[in-house]
Amino acid sequence: MNPKYRNLFIAIFILSLALRLGLTLVNREAIDDHMEAVRLILSTHQLPSLIDCRECFHPKLFYASAAALLGLLGIYDNNAQVVLVQLVNFLAGAITLVFAWKLIEEFPSKNDIVKLTTFALLALNPKLIAVNSQATNDSFLILFCTAALFFAWRFLQKPGRMLFGTAVVFLLLAVSTKTTGWIAFAAIFLALLLAAWAKGEQRKTFLFYVSMMTVGVLALTTIDPLSQFISNYQKYGSPITNTRPAMPMPAFFKQISSYKGYYFRPGIVSIQDGFLTFKFIDLLRYPLIGTETNDIASYPPQRTSFWTLLYADSQSLHFQNWPRSWETSGLQGFDLSRGIFILGLLPAFIFIVGFFLEIFIFLRSFFSHDLRNADDHGLWLAATCGYILFLLLFALLFRDFSFIKFVYILPGLPAFAWVFLRGAEKVYGYLARSRWATVLVNGAIVALLALYVLDVTTLILQLNPINIHF
Asked: What is the DSSP letter of 270?
């Protein structure tokens, strides 16, 4: 890489860490209260079960680790506990960025602008910064899934026991942190199967590794007390639990926003409205999710559009307007959010281009019986599709708008980065025909990055007067 671009990489990395650290030190709340489970372990010295708290249905690796650290250091002040756990997540976020940086550097392209743009959009993404600055289990999961996918990708390129073992260890950590770690497991499983099919001379070797990973992860996770698979099955009849019942399936066109006997704040009210719309104009009119009203008859139109919610939540940490200390009043920040949503269409378009290119490359290699052209054996495509399909199914089953969150698919971060790289290489290659088009696109990306930084900075300044001491 050109030294100039490497220096820019370093500068962006340092800036992203500064924003994460700043938000970590002033923040005291999270989207969901995961500290309740940590404090239960700290006070009872036992792992809580499904009925003990709102977030207690998750596997317990994060909670047990946080409780052990707090107990070891003897920290019992609530604010100090939150800050320390957030600092751990800050570290997890920093390591995640290192993995992403390494993956982006190794993307097979000589265009350093493409790589720099991808890393900058990822490192400065406000939502990812927010996640790394909260006391939740998401930063652990994102790190473990990123590492597992990264080492699995390295293994597919050059098989070795050390790479395979490292990928499996991170998979075990992921599924012991949150159930969605199994999506990374499924993506790696499929890629290994395709590698066995493609590499005839190494078929037995890859089938052996597939078997070892499957049996090892399933067996070790089952007996791992942190997963609680056995106790969950004994108590509730299922190894994987959830505190919310699934909703009735929506109609295709008829919009139904409430069902008797179900707690339901309108999210997906019909298939057509939920999954076949992108309400961008409504989003610009009111760039918030609208949590100030849970009335089933009064809510902003964009709240019932899956793709609008996912897009907006991936671009701004102010869109959800939650937790309570993060809320804005009146029209505060509306122009900033609108600017982000308008400029964010460009990287969204590049990602879509990359997604279809990745599908084309994979299918061409698959049907030509030569997956050597797809150097990841479909790993990144499987992970991308897996996490997006999971969120689609999640939204369809539970339908409350709060189940449609960008954070739920962030464990697929390295796959999304790879797909974006694919699209950016194509788009920038096309733009190279026109100097002014390249300047315009680069200018729009720089402007978006500036708004990202401003989005995070405004929240830090908003929280600072309240939580300046700890």
From this structure: -
Residues 6+ apart with CB under 8 A from 423: 350, 351, 352, 353, 354, 355, 357
Number of separate domains in the chain: 1
- From CA 412, how far away is CA 390, in angstroms rounded? 11
What pLDDT, on the 0 to 100 scale, is given for residue 40? 97
Q: Cα–Cα distance between 67 and 64 in angstroms, integer? A: 5
* Gap between the Cα atoms of 147 and 384, Å rounded: 15
- The answer to whether residue 401 sits within a structural domain is no
Regarding pTM above 0.85, the answer is yes
**Residue linked to tokens 């939540």:** 313
**Contact by Cβ (8 Å): 401, 303:** yes
Q: List the domain range (segments joined by +) for residue 332.
A: 271-343
- Domain assignment of residue 321, yes or no: yes
Please tell me the predicted confidence (pLDDT) of residue 465: 59
The pLDDT tens digits of the residues spanning 345-358 come to 999 999 999 999 99
Q: Does a structural domain hold residue 314?
A: yes
DSSP state of 125: -
Counting as low any pLDDT under 70, the low residues of the chain are 260-264, 291-297, 369-375, 465-470
Q: What does the pLDDT read at residue 373?
A: 53
**Which DSSP state fits 147?**
H
DSSP letter at 174?
H
Burial 122-138 (b: 16+ CB within 10 A, else e): bbbbbbbbbbbbbbbbb
* pLDDT computed for residue 466 by the predictor: 52
**Do the domain assignments include residue 58?**
no
